[in-house]
Design goal:
This protein is of the alpha+beta class. It has helices at 34-51, 54-70, 75-84, 109-120, 133-136, 171-184, 191-199, 217-230; strands at 2-5, 11-14, 100-102, 123-125, 151-156, 162-167, 209-213. The protein is built from eight helices and seven strands; from the N terminus they run ββαααβαβαββααβα.
Length: 242
Amino acid sequence: MRVTVDVGGSLGHSVYRKPTHKDRYLHNSSFHHPRVKSSVIRTLIQRAHKNCKQEHLQDELQHISTALRLNEYHRRQVKTQNHLNFRVSYTQSQRPNYKDIVNPPFIGSTSHKIQRILNQASIKVYHSSIKKLQASLQTHKDKQDHKTKAGVCGIPCECGKVCIGETGRDLSTRVKEHTAHGCRGDYDKSAIVKHSHAEDHIIDWKAAELIVPVNRWHPRCIREAIEMCRHDTVPQNIGFNI
């Protein structure tokens, strides 16, 4: 909503559009059900009546009419929806009772024939769009490496036990921290390093893995406790009690 200060100090309000807005809406020539296209017009007009002060309403409706004509909507379609905007909505008792609801894809004139037949059988039809081009195209973004995500990780020892821990950083950073604790002799700061030093075991750093990625801290701590119950762990702080 765009709020302005009118002459006299009163506040005016109208529809706000970003500077980059190009008035591009669902094109009238696109292969969609007519109700979907009419809903575009109806939504824009309802937004204008809801968000615009009376003195700004006609300017907004004129802008909508111009924008829709650029998207090849006919003037008659816009006028019809503007008139229907003030219809009295159905009460609950006036709404027709349907036995069932179906959602078939819209395939042109055939869909209208199917809809008429189903309506005669008291079946409500809501058409959906067919498979879009977007569903067939691959994303241009590179997939994020599994090891670069936050989550619950495990570092195994040669004895078969494993150190389970949660981390908000990536796995390689957490492994470097454990190795640094071992080099400095800070055994109390790393359960796996302390276990290796006490039992004279070798840590299998290369087998360290991210067991499950979890972004949020609290769910990550809960999952850490679950994984501790599932694995044979080295002596370490159990974290949450489950």
